[in-house]
Each structure stands twice: as structure tokens, then as C-alpha cells.
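Note to self: keep these together.
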Amino acid sequence: MKKTAYTALILFALTTLIFSCSQGPGSKNVLPAEKAAQIIKEKIGDPYYLYVNFSTIRSNSELGMKLKTLIDTGVYEYEWGDVRKVYVQKKEEAVSYSKGDISINLSGQLSGDLAVQKVYLDKIIKVKVKKNEAVVTYIERHEPSDIYDIIMADPDAKETLEEARKAGEIEEPKEKQITLLKENDAWRVK
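Structure:
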């Protein structure tokens, strides 16, 4: 009877030791998918925009007139050769239309990097944590930008957009990876 009790006590002690070790320092290195998503969104933005350079937009087209209303919010302009540049304030409306610089040629034509896709973090696929480093696999989703329909209605702009697609400037959503580091009990993008 003493042998059985002694064996049971030893087994209990070993089991407790094994479970406590398995939940030791490594258990603090857990990174929930929701937390990983929050860190990624803070770093890359949610949404962020994919821009394509459009040159020689006619100022009397619907796209040109839309950009002119955006130019009216410009805060800084300067002359350079035959091109005048207007810097559009980085408020939400401007970001969803343009990177911030719109050039106006003396001929009246406009050029600029215009937003064609809104990019959102869709879901976290996998979080692999090893010591104080985590590799997060995720996928994004794309939605048309606020100016997309106007771009597609303009024959010249539509052609520029199709060329950008063929050149791979606008890629389809695919799995991506990002590395996060843990410092002082806080995770950040490497």
C-alpha cells in the first residue's frame, strides 16, 4: 500500500512538473490573431490605397473636373518649368483620390498618382510564434477606390489602368507574411 501511494505521489509530482514547465516561459509568447491584426493595421493602415500614375488627364473630362475640386483644397503650390504642382492636404478625401501631388501643365492637362484600390486586412491565416518573434500570414481584400468609377469612365484613364494591371503594378490579393517582434511585453512590426 505504501509503495502504491509513494508511486502515485511521484507520478503526481512528475505530471505537475511537466505541465508547469510546458506552460512556463513559452506560454507568455502567445499572440492572438486579433492582436496581430491590430498591430498590422496600425503599421500599414486599414485601409491603405494602391496608386497608379495617370498623366495627361484632360481638365474638361469628368475625371479632370473631379481633380480640380480636389486641387481647390491645395495648400502649397510651386512652379517648375511648364508644370505647376499643387499639394493636396492629406485628409481622408485627398488620400482616397490622390497621393497628394497633382501636376498642372500649361496646356491645362493634369497628372498625378491616383488611388485605384482600397486595401483592407481581410483575415489572419496563421500566427507562428518562436521565442520573441512571430511570423504572421495574412490576406488582404481589395475594393474600388472612391474615384475608380470615374477613372473607368474616362477612356484614356481606363487604358492607363489596364496597362498598369498588365505591368503588375496592381496585384491581386495574395497571402503575405509579416514578422513581429516582442520587446518589453509588447509586440511590434520588425
